[in-house]
From TrEMBL:
The keyword Transmembrane applies. The keyword Transmembrane helix applies. The chain crosses the membrane at residues 149-168. This is YtkA-like domain-containing protein. Residues 1-25 form the signal peptide. Residues 33-124 form the YtkA-like domain. Keywords: Membrane, Signal, Transmembrane, Transmembrane helix.
Length: 179
């Protein structure tokens, strides 16, 4: 009886942990919009807060008639704001130029950039539109990524369940040996 209860509890807790992280991952995101010579450029991060490490970005480009700009050769780089750099290494405050790929929709371009430290950063975009080369800079506040408490909590729950199950099965084995 107790084994069935423990199995059910462990299955339910595993499902809850899996579903809770899926729901959190499907959250909105941070949007920053700019107008550049008749082009509307919208930069979207997958998370609400931009964190250190790798971040997936989407750049949406629309002309002055609100039509998507297709086949725009999009290049992106990130650079830490000079005021945010106190005693930082200058080499780690810049990134290589990343060429973004076409997204799922017309006018949408996706790629991944890496922020090496927390602080104020500039996301520099360079793209070709029908009326020439354009550049748009987006200011971004980057926070420290820190530990993911949902993952840490999930591991603690799983480890606790394993210890409880091992303790119960050990007691049952001792009872059957005495009989």
């Amino acid at each position: 009886m107790k084994n069935k209860l423990i199995k059910r509890l462990s299955i339910i807790s595993a499902l809850v942990l899996t579903l809770s992280t899926s729901v959190l991952a499907a959250g909105g995101g941070k949007n920053i919009e700019q107008q550049v010579d008749g082009v509307k450029a919208t930069l979207t991060f997958t998370e609400d807060k931009v964190k250190t490490g790798e971040n997936k970005l989407t750049l949406k480009l629309y002309d002055d008639k609100d039509k998507p700009i297709v086949n725009a050769n999009v290049n992106v780089s990130v650079e830490m704001d000079k005021d945010s750099m106190s005693d930082m290494n200058m080499d780690s405050s810049k990134s290589d130029i990343v060429q973004f790929k076409k997204g799922y929709k017309d006018g949408e371009y996706v790629g991944t950039v890496k922020f090496s430290d927390k602080g104020k950063w500039k996301v520099k975009t360079n793209f070709m539109a029908s009326n020439g080369e354009k550049m748009a800079d987006f200011n971004v506040d980057v926070i420290s990524s820190g530990p993911n408490w949902f993952v840490v909590g999930g591991f603690l729950v799983v480890i606790t369940l394993i210890i409880v199950i091992a303790g119960i099965t050990k007691k049952k084995k001792k009872k059957t040996i005495k009989a």
